[in-house]
């Protein structure tokens, strides 16, 4: 059975996506740094194989694609960074690191998986989901590094969607602030979290399941006519202002 690769599979959004895809009957191949966490999640999900490694290692992507199998039904790159600093405090090395993890990693993941994704498409399509952020479309202070990196992801996805059509569909999910371990520095303080939540038309922070459900849908055959899109899962933050 063709598998869907999920990079960052043990993270908050990656894990939620894995559960949503398994509920739809997808076999999975998870990629993450923590081998123990991978094995535990694979045992929990069933029909799941794993590759342990870090996305800053260029050799990881070919290895993960090979271990996932010759035919792939989808790819989800649920890897990201949150590096929020004023422009005067950002160092070039930090910007390069954000770009490497978010944009270059996404490119290398799709590049390595493209033959398998085309093989797995059969007479239909396979689905790729990359992740951006609401901050790529909205101007938020102290978000220069992550907004640049995720903006590159959106440009990459549009190019790939055109180049890999019709066998492979490529879409982007752009969440607002979501309660994950990665975002703990922003969500651990409930006063801060509630203040950010109130900025949304639906006044709460995101849950991993919100984003995972959409990612799973975009990989599935039900989204067979959706490609080249950037879709917000953001409580309306990117489009709506309910006050002032």
Would you write up a description of this structure?
46% of the residues are buried. The chain has a 7-stranded parallel beta sheet with strand order 3-2-1-4-5-6-7, sandwiched between helices. Helix content is 44%, strand content 16%. It has helices spanning 12-23, 35-45, 60-68, 92-121, 144-164, 184-187, 190-197, 208-219, and strands at residues 3-7, 27-32, 48-52, 72-77, 126-131, 168-175, 230-233. The chain has 8 helices and 7 strands, in the order βαβαβαβαβαβαααβ. It has one domain: NAD(P)-binding Rossmann-like Domain (Rossmann fold), CATH 3.40.50.720. Strand 1, helix 1 (12-23) and strand 2 form a beta-alpha-beta unit. The chain has 244 residues and is of the alpha/beta class. The model has no long low-confidence stretch (mean pLDDT 96). GO terms for molecular function: oxidoreductase activity. Pfam families: adh_short_C2. Residues 2-178 form the Ketoreductase domain.
């Amino acid at each position: 059975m063709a598998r869907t690769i999920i990079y960052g599979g043990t993270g908050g959004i990656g894990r939620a996506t894995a559960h949503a895809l398994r509920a739809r009957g997808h076999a999975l191949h998870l990629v993450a740094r923590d081998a123990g966490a991978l094995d535990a999640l694979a045992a929990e999900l069933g029909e799941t194989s794993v590759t342990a490694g870090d996305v800053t290692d260029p050799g990881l992507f070919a290895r993960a694609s090979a271990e996932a199998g010759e035919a792939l039904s989808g790819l989800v790159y649920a890897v990201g960074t949150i590096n929020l600093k004023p422009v005067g405090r950002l160092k070039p090395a930090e910007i390069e690191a954000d770009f490497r993890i978010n944009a270059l990693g996404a490119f290398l993941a799709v590049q390595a998986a493209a033959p398998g994704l085309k093989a797995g498409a059969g007479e239909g399509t396979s689905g790729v989901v990359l992740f951006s952020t609401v901050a790529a479309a909205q101007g938020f202070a102290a978000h220069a590094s992550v907004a640049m990196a995720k903006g590159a992801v959106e440009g990459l996805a549009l190019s790939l969607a055109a180049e890999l059509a019709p066998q492979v569909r490529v879409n982007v999910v752009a969440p607002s602030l979501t309660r994950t371990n990665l975002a703990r520095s922003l969500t651990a303080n409930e006063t801060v979290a509630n203040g950010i939540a109130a900025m949304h038309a639906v006044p709460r922070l995101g849950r991993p399941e919100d984003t995972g459900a959409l990612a799973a849908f975009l990989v599935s055959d039900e989204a067979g006519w959706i490609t080249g899109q950037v879709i917000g899962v953001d409580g309306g933050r990117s489009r709506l202002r309910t006050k002032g």
